[in-house]
């Protein structure tokens, strides 16, 4: 017998049985049922859960949204899956592919000139670019990267502005809408963006929806978009699309990039710089 005042647990049998639950099932019970299904199967579909729990697909999507905000699940096309592995810490990522990142950053630094406004995304390759900025005058740097802002705040000739929004754990950066970050209506000459991963369709992807959306906002603020990504980022996978490589004006990578991939990038009309 359940405790007085406690709601009975909602079991999740196999979907082929398709049991029907009463419409009076509480939201907390539905979400417990959703999590049980995700843990058991890895990925579950909206339509299956709607039929099983006897609610609309809109209700299930609202449950998905609530669970995603809690970090319990990750949205995929048509359903949800288990939440992504937490982002690797900034310090750990800084020690990976150091030489390639240094060469990529040096090539990127040559694109920066006096009197310009640039956006520096967060990430370890972008942080290396901040360390290699050329000697310039009247350079305005807009950045969500907390480490980047700290590194540049005393540099002569550089006016740095740390963007607002919510601090995202694990990446040492802020995320948010254009208004939240304080760049609504701003125009930058150049935006330098990093990538969590680049998949087989040449989409730049991230493990967090907030990060992906913030990167798109930064890209949309600039007249020229430059992607900095070492060769190990290519043909890897994550869940949330930022934009396609073809939507960048310039891609800078290292010389370990296969020739076939170089040709595919050039075929889109995007400038490719191999450092």
TrEMBL record:
Q: Which GO terms describe its molecular function?
A: DNA binding; DNA-binding transcription factor activity
Which key words are in the record? Answer: DNA-binding, Transcription, Transcription regulation
Query: DNA-binding: is it a keyword of this entry?
Result: yes
Residue ranges annotated for the HTH deoR-type domain, each copy included:
27-82
Task: Tell me where the transmembrane regions lie.
Answer: none
* Gene3D superfamilies given in the database record: 3.40.50.1360, Winged helix-like DNA-binding domain superfamily/Winged helix DNA-binding domain
Q: Known PANTHER family for this protein?
A: AGA OPERON TRANSCRIPTIONAL REPRESSOR-RELATED, HTH-TYPE TRANSCRIPTIONAL REGULATOR SRLR-RELATED
Query: Can you name this protein?
Result: DeoR family transcriptional regulator
Q: Report the source organism.
A: Salana multivorans
Q: Give the organism's phylogenetic lineage.
A: Bacteria, Bacillati, Actinomycetota, Actinomycetes, Micrococcales
